[in-house]
Structures are given as structure tokens and as C-alpha cells.
Amino acid sequence: MRIATYNVNGIGGRLPILLKWLDLAEPDIVALQELKAPQEKFPEKEIRDAGYDAIWHGQSRWNGVALLSRVGEIHETRRGLPGDPLDEESRYIEAAVGGILIAGLYLPNGNPWPGPKFDYKLQWMARLDAHLTSLFDLDAPVVACGDYNVIPTDLDVYKPANWTKDALFSPEAKAAYQRYLDQGWTDAIRHLHPDERIYSFWAYWRRSFERNAGIRIDHLLLNRPATKRLKAAGVDMRPRGWDKSSDHAPAWIELADGPAPARQMRAPSAR
């Protein structure tokens, strides 16, 4: 089972990029973030024509999350993160697909830090912490994936000194992310690549991608049943090198379906 998370940075303008990547990489389940499209503007027909079922939680201009599947029906279990009935931002969607619970999320950026946006980020992270607690001990595999907007450690950033005043690298945000791991969640990429510099975001300026001056903020967290099935993990850098692409690249995992070895995503490290 191939599961990926991809911040598309506007599904309307970047739909050709997404469809090209879906055809090339053939992921089974995909969590999308930052759709930047209202509910009625999601390209349902094009996604279904590409072979994927879809559910989505849109929002005009900002945010927006979706789940895609080509391996079975999507059974939605939650839309919106619990804990604040007044929060109307489209940042969380959850569903059961093929015996796996997928939580797709787009965590707030939090800049400028300090300030109200950063306060909202920490409040959202605390609500996610509470919800993840309710999911962790499920007997089924659970994958909580998306754009966390958190750089967990110095290993996850090209030049840490350049990010010391950014909310993504703030001590409070890193501590909140660490609390997810302290619950027992496994950061799939770091679990399989403990010492490797792997990035999932490169800014558009100063040839960041060409210099591989990136950060890792797109994460896939696994509960124990999912971790036991983890076979491979990484970032598919190819779409980031395409013209008019998102500033993110898809992060992905392979989960074994059973005793047989899992398939490998085709050339995940190629550009």
C-alpha cells in the first residue's frame, strides 16, 4: 500500500502537475493540502477520470484538504478537527480506506511569531494532540499525514540559523510535535532514515531547490499497527522540479499488505 501526502499549493492552477504525478507515481492513497478552492470548485471529474475516488473539505482562497483513493471506497469518519466548534478553517479530514484510517491535515503556519496566528497554531496543535490520543490505540493501522508546518530538528533544515525567527522552527512548535512522538507515534521518514537530510519543501527564491536548500515539514505519523507494516518511506522530489509546480514535494510511505514484500514506488528519489 502506497500512501502519500502532498501540499499542492492550489489545486486549480496545479491540477496538471497533480495528474501527471498521480500517473507517474501511482500512489494508492493520497492526502492533499492547501487546495485553495471552495467545495464546489474541487476538480472531481478530473480526479475520478484519473482513477481515484475522492472526498474533500474545501475553502475559498485558503486551506482545503482532500483524500484520494484508487484501492477502495473512502469512508469518511471526520471533517474538521474537534476541540473548537468556532474554528471554520478547512484543515482536517479523516477516513477509513482499505482497513487503514487516514487522517489528512494542514497545520497552521503560525507566522508572524509571536502573535495571534502563532497562538492559533499552538492551540490547533494541542487539539490535534488530544485527537491523536484517541486514535493511537486503535487496532487498525492509523496514518496521520500532511503538512505539519513544523521543522522537527536541525537535521530537517538546510541552514538552521536562517529559521530561528520562524514559527515553523520555534521551540514551542517543535515541543508540540515532540509530544506526538512521545505518545508513541512514529515519524515514518525519520524512523527509516535516522541520519539522512531529507526535505519536502523548497522556497521558490534563490534557487533553493537546485541547491537542495530545503526543509522537512510534510510528515507521516504512524501508530503501532501501521509501524509494524512500514517497509519504505521518502520524498518524491520529481514534481518539485517541474515547471509551475508546488513548492512542496510528495512525502510517501509503503505499508506491507501482509507477509509479501511491499512494492517500491517507482524512482522516488529521481527529479
TrEMBL record:
- Write down a Pfam family by its short name: Exo_endo_phos
Q: Which catalytic residues are annotated?
A: 106, 147, 248
Which keywords appear in this protein's UniProt record, sorted alphabetically?
Hydrolase, Magnesium, Manganese, Metal-binding
Can you quote the record's cofactor note? Probably binds two magnesium or manganese ions per subunit.
Known InterPro entries for this protein? Answer: AP_endonuc_1, AP_endonuclease_F1_BS, Endo/exonu/phosph_ase_sf, Endo/exonuclease/phosphatase, ExoIII-like
Can you give the residue ranges of the Endonuclease/exonuclease/phosphatase domain?
Answer: 4-248
Gene3D superfamilies attached here?
Endonuclease/exonuclease/phosphatase
Q: Which cofactor does it need?
A: Mg(2+); Mn(2+)
GO process annotations (BP): DNA repair
Annotated site residue numbers, Important for catalytic activity: 218
Q: Which domain of life is it from?
A: Bacteria
Q: Where is this site: Transition state stabilizer?
A: 149
Per the UniProt record, the site (Interaction with DNA substrate) maps to: 248
GO terms of molecular function? DNA binding; double-stranded DNA 3'-5' DNA exonuclease activity; endonuclease activity; metal ion binding
The record lists Mg(2+) as bound by 7, 34, 147, 149, 247-248
- Which NCBIfam families does the record associate with it? exoDNase_III, xth
Say which family it is in.
Answer: Belongs to the DNA repair enzymes AP/ExoA family.
Name the chain's protein: Exodeoxyribonuclease-3
Name its species: Sphingopyxis terrae subsp. ummariensis
Q: What is the lineage of its organism?
A: Bacteria, Pseudomonadati, Pseudomonadota, Alphaproteobacteria, Sphingomonadales
